[in-house]
Write a structure and sequence with these properties.
It is built from 12 helices and 3 strands; from the N terminus they run βαααβαααβαααααα. With 308 residues, it is an all-alpha fold. It has one domain: Up-down Bundle (Rhopdopsin 7-helix transmembrane proteins), CATH 1.20.1070.10. The chain has a 3-stranded mixed beta sheet. It is globular. The N and C termini lie far apart (53 Å). 36% of the residues are buried.
Length: 308
Amino acid sequence: MAHTNESMVSEFVLLGLSDSWELQIFFFVIFSIVYVASVLGNIVIIVIISSDSHLNSPMYFLLSNLSFIDICQSNFATPKMLADFLVEHKTISFEGCMAQIFLLHSFVGSEMILLVAMAYDRFIAICKPLHYSTIMNRRLCIIFVSISWALGILHSVIHLAFTVDLPFCGPNEIDSFFCDVPLVIKLACMDTYEMEIVTLSNSGLISSSCFLALIVSYAIILITVKRWSSSRSTKALSTLTAHITVVILFFGPCIYFYIWPFSRLSVDKFISVFYTVCAPLLNPIVYSLRNEDFKSAMRKLRNRHVNS
């Protein structure tokens, strides 16, 4: 990056979660377990969906892509955070910091759009069941996935374009364990009010519009399901509960951060941990425990390997 020569700051210092060595070792153990469980859990979801013909439906195709995004999200900052727990001086290069910003917003933006696509899939399946196989074909699913990645990357590029050329001449301490736009912008040696508005507008637009679309679609679905008989609605409500749980836990921290992105509280970095480290674990937990078809596929895969 050519602008690096014009900036006095070549690296940033990450303050992390705590100054206590004992707490850092405790966090290292706990988050290592969560990280491994998250990555392996999402890999298992992808393997089970790809190996079981009964899960060859648009919903599970979108779910496998959601798991892939969660694997990516688990790896953009968590491995460095774990390594930093074991060292005293936690730094990240300017280029590494910009890369984290790009990857974070690409994955998060893509996941938001993909969750909307999954809600649309459930809307068609429940509200227009006779047309489901016609509307939700593989081609449309691939288009949804492509759009989610394209919009996620576009969302990230907009952030990066306004951040990468800012003059950084000190200080260079980031009160977190990874780089994010609001934390980096406040270190620039210039008035960043306009930048803050652009950041808020960009992130607020994609998160609020996706969340609104999800709320509307699930409200319509729930009204439709309420009219069904209790036996028919049980399976639909089980699937919807899983989806709504993921949506609330995913969008909650995101909306919180971008309501007031440039005024930070001490609890914010721990919410960041949930958002970046724990949130990718939601899919393996929620979908494996709440979905009977998926649990049945897991048992068949396990029995197949035991017998072999």
